[in-house]
Amino acid sequence: MMSRVLFVTSNGTGLGHLTRGMAIARRFGDGVEPVFLTLSAAAPVVDRMGFHVEYFPSHGAAAAESPRRWDRRLRARLELLVDELDPRLLVFDGAHPYDGLVALLRARRGGSMRTVWCRRPMWRAGTGTEAIYWSGEFDEVLEPGEYAESEDRGPTVERRDEAERVEPIVFLDPGELNSREAAAEELGLDPDRPHALIALGQGPELAGAVARCLELLARHPEIQVAALESSLSPELRVPDDVVLLRGTYPMSRFHRAFDLAVAAAGYNAFHELLAHGVPSLFVPMPRQIDDQAARARWAQSEGLGRGLDGPGDQALEARLEELLEADVRGEIAKVGMEQALLEGVVLTGGGALLQGMCDVAEERLNCQARNGLPVGIAGLPDEINDAAWCVAAGLSMYSAKLKTRKEWKRTVPGILGMLYDKGATGGQHGGN
After folding, report:
1. pTM for the whole thing?
2. Structural domains in the chain plus CATH codes
3. Model pLDDT for residues 316-333, shown as the tens digit of each residue
């Protein structure tokens, strides 16, 4: 029996809420049907990604309508959808649960539908104190991981115990990205030149920053520049020698084509560029709740990129000039690798049994190293219970999981737990 999950996303100022929802939805198996109700004008993007989506205009887009009346209409729309779809799970992604949504949650409490707030961390200090109060209206809170959590001073920090925290949610895993050659060809880029991506979006607050980036890069003709046009604000104007990127969602599919990027420090762009190893200059945008400045500051201090205070920061040209140096980009890549190795490495295969191999690994990688052991398979004879057999044991376990259709992506355990482990449905779930 098909289980439905209803994703409800706020409008925001970009595609952040929608992208997180789709990142989760695309990792569901065949037994789950995701449906979206979004307040974002980017609803057509969801449709192009192959998901059923319905659009409900945000209060700001509804002409001359009082907030109370808008909330009543939102609740009525949600009631109709829930009655029609009978979803096993409702997932809300937004910074503030709407009154109409909260009214629905209260009316449906105790029923078969479970509810989750996908509550992104890194709120600005002193903001969202009213919004976070509504956490208790949901059955569960899912907190996407945040690389820059050491800079987080917002109200979600003290509420982490109530949330199921997972690793950062990105739309594509590194293995799903196009190769550099394929990405460059599809985007119309010269494969023999370094490439810079400008992905700041559009609007009055950004026009100056985009112009400054393009002016500086024009003095480096060896660099081919591509500028990303926002799905929400089309008609970006760029010089003739700049490649204008339209209809490229998800942009992360092409990340391997770029040697550097200038991007906003919103959750999705920040985590995807870091996860995919693109040396980047992060430009924080002023937002009511999202503390983009903290992310940019963290990237700068950790050596994982360059960061500014905002679009008008006078250091923009100097920081961008740094990224144009191949040595600087190489150092950023090295720091990124070191960050990935902070928790150490596990050596497997017959070579791991060579005398002194762990010592060599620790010396060369500057992290802890140990030999792996095959675990999770009962009754292994002593003769094969060592590092040499780890790969074979792992492949056997992976195959078994595929056969029972229980192999799931690590980014959505909380939602999957709500759907399957807590009685929301009795059937088995499909794998990827």
Report:
1. 0.81
2. 3-165 (3.40.50.2000), 174-340 (3.40.50.2000), 345-407 (no CATH)
3. 999 999 999 999 999 998
